[in-house]
Design goal:
138 residues; alpha+beta; four-stranded antiparallel β-sheet; two-stranded antiparallel sheet; 2 helices
Length: 138
Amino acid sequence: MKKIAAVGVGVLFLTACQTVPYQGTARNVQLKPKKQGVISIPLNFRDEDRTKAEGMIARNCKPYLGEILQEGEVAVGKTTSSSGKETNRDDTRGTVGSLFGIPITTGEAGGKNTNSTSTTTDVKEWHISYKCNPSKKG
């Protein structure tokens, strides 16, 4: 009975460790059915992303072949990241004497110093522009 339980736990463990293979990411940015389109894939694309895009082109152009016109990096937006730092400033004031009974001080009052920076960068994708070629059957 213990052996059966151990085998069952082992099978469950192996099944749980399996991963789903990467399916690829691609989306239509522009589409004219059976005529042309633009497909977006991640900037640092993998073979699966490219394969998915080519499948989308083939489905749109069927029964003809799709012809890639242009592809490349395209800025599709901006992102801004900010960071800040706040430091305490020590009170360095001190009395150095008096003039007519009024204390004379030197130094800086305590407080906080604040520094902040922000950086804006382009958000980019890889775009593939294509057209369906009716003179070439797929």
